[in-house]
Hints:
The complex is a heterodimer of chains A (339) and B (292).
Chain A (H helix, E strand, L loop, with lengths): L6 H18 L1 H4 L10 E2 L5 E3 L20 H36 L5 H7 L1 H5 L2 H8 L1 H4 L7 H32 L2 H8 L4 H37 L7 E5 L6 E3 L4 H8 L8 H28 L8 H33 L1
Antiparallel strand pairs in A: 1-2, 3-4
Helix pairs in contact in A: 1-3, 1-12, 3-8, 3-10, 8-10, 10-11, 10-12, 11-12
Chain B lengths: L1 H22 L1 H4 E4 L4 E4 L1 H17 L4 H8 L1 H33 L2 H16 L2 H19 L16 H26 L3 H9 L3 H19 L1 H18 L5 H7 L5 H29 L8
Antiparallel strand pairs in B: 1-2
Helix pairs in contact in B: 5-8, 5-10, 5-11, 6-8, 7-8, 8-10, 8-11, 11-13
Amino acid sequence: MKAFNYKNMIIGLSILGIVLIFSLLYPLYGPEDFNKVMYLYDKKGNLIGVPPIPPSSHYLLGSDRNGADILLMMIYGAKFTLLSAFGVTFIRVLIGGALGIIFSLWLKRLLPILKDFLLVFNLVPPIIITLVLMLPVSTTYIEDSVYSILFYQIIILIIMGVPSVLIMTSEIIDEMKGKSFIQSSYLMGGNHLHVLKTHLKPFLTSYGFLMAIQQLLNTLVLIMYLGAFQVYLGGVSREEVRGLPILNSISKEWAGLIGQNYREFFMSPWVVLIPLTCYFLLIIIINMIKKEIEASLDINSLGMTFKRRKKKKKKQNDAVSKNNIAIKSDFTFQKMSNN
Amino acid sequence: MIKKILYLPVRLIAILAGFVCVVNIPILFVFNSGNKEVEFHFSSYKYYVLDNLALFLHYNDYSYIFHYFKGEGMEKYAYTMTILSISLLLVVFIGVIAATAIMMLPHTFRKRISSFIDFTITAPDLLIIFLLQYMVIYFYKTFDVKLFQLYGGNHTEPYFMPIIISFFVPAIFLIQFLLKEMAVEEQQDYVLFLRAKGLPKSVIYIKHIIRNIFPLVLIHLQTIIWFLLSNIIVVEYLFNIHGFAEVLRSMYGQRAEAFILGFLLFAVPIIMANLIAYIVLKLRKRKEKVSV
C-alpha cells in the first residue's frame, strides 16, 4: 500500500476526523442550549429578527424555528452520526465476516438452510424491518437515556447488515475454492485453517475493505431514511418544533435534523438544506474513497477477473484457430496427395 | 429433482423461522425504561419464537387469516401494491427506452450522459425524493394547477404523486445498469457481424441487443422492487397517506401472527418477480439462474 495512491481517502478521512474532534470537544467550549435566542437585538436595542433567522453574521448558518444555532447543533450532532455509522459498519463486517468464514468452511452443510433462514432480509426492504423493530424506543421521551437508546438502535442496525455480509463472504469463499491453487493446497493435505491463513486471507482483507465501505454507505442511507420517519438516533427530546407537532431529535444527529425540519423548505429553506447538503457531502466523500479503493483493487463491481478472463479466452481461441488451420491445411494436403 | 421436492418443506420452515425470529427481536433485546438499560432475554425469546412457529405449523383453525384478509388492512395493501405495480411498469418501460435511446446517441454525448447518471446515483435517494417533492409542490403553488390530489387525508388515496416521485430513482438505477450491460454486449461477435453487414444502429439496438438484454432486466426486478418499495413507503409517510406500512406499524404489539403475515405480504411482490424471471428464463433456456 503506497500512501500517495490513496490521496482521496487520506483527505476525506482527515476532514471527517477534524469534524469528529470538534464534535467530541463540544462540551468544553459550546453552550448547552445552542445559543437559543427568541428575539435578536442589535447593539442599540432594536429588534433585528425572530427565529428562524437566515444565515448572517450573527448566525453563520442561520437558526431554526426554536432559535437554536444550526452550526452548533450540527457540530454537536456530528459525533452521533459518524461514530454510530462507523461503529455499526465495523461490527457488521466483523460478525458477518467471521460467521461467513465459519459457515462456508466448517459448516458447509448448514449454509443453504442458513441462507433460507436469512431470506427475510432479502425479501423485505430493510427500512420496513428497522422501523418496526425500533418502535419501542422511538416515540416517547425517556429521561437521561440517550446512550442506552442509542445502544439498542445500534444493535438493530447491526442485525440489519450482518446477513448480507455473511452471504457475500460465503460467495467469495465459494468462488475462491474453485481456484486451482486452493484445490492443490487441499490435495497436499492442508486443512481449512491453513487455507484460510495462507490463501484466503489476502483476498478476504481486500474484499472486506470494499464490503465495509459499501456497508457504511448502506448504514448512512438507512439512518437518513429513519430520520425522515422521525426515528432519531438517541431518541426524541421533550421539545417540539415550534408551531408544528413534530418532536425534536435529542442528540441533534444530522439525519434527525433533516427529518424534523423537512417541512421548513418553503418558509425557511436553510434550516433543512444545510443538514441535507452536509449529509450529501458525507456520502460523496465516502463514495470517493470507495471508487479509489475499487480502482486500486482493479475490481469491476461484479466480476473482478472479467477483463483478464476475456483476454485469456481470446488467446486460447487464437491458439485453437491457428492449430485448426494448421490441421486443416495438413489434412487437405494429405487428401490431395492421396488422390 | 425428488431430493429438491423433499427438501422443500425444510426450506419453507427455515424461511418462516427467519420471519418469526426477526419479528421477535424486540423480545430478545428489551429496552427497560425503568433502569434505562438494554436487557437480554433469551429464554422468553425462545419461548415466543417456538410459540409463534407452532401457531403457524400446527394450527388447525386458519380463521384468523380470513379475518385478516377481510379487514381494512387488505384495502391498504391493495392500494400500496397498485402503486408499486404501476411504477414498476413505468420503470421498466422508461428505463429500457431511455437506455437504448442514450446508446444510439453519438459517442461523446453518450459518455457525458452516462457520467451524469453515475453522479446522480451517488446522491442519496432521500435527497432526490425531497427535491422532487419540493419541485412538484412549487409547480402547484406557482401555476395553481390542481390536476391531481397531492396529500392524503382521512380516506383519500392519491395515485399520481407517489408514483411520479417513487419511480424516479429506480428508473435511473435501471438506466445505469442497462448502459453498462449494453456496453458489454456491444463487444459481442454478433454485433460486429451485424455492423459489418451494414445494418443501421437502430436495428442493431432495438431488434437484437434489447432482446438479449431483457432477461437481465427480469433478474434485476428484485432490486428494482426493493428500491421502489422503500421509496413508496417514505413517500406515503411524507405525504400523510395511509398505506400498508402504516397499518403494519399500528399492528405492532398486538398479535404476532398478524404481524408476521404482514411481513410476508410485503415479501410477495419480490417472490412473484423471481418466479416470473425463473419461468421466463427456463422457457427461453438461458444460462442465468434465479432463485427465490
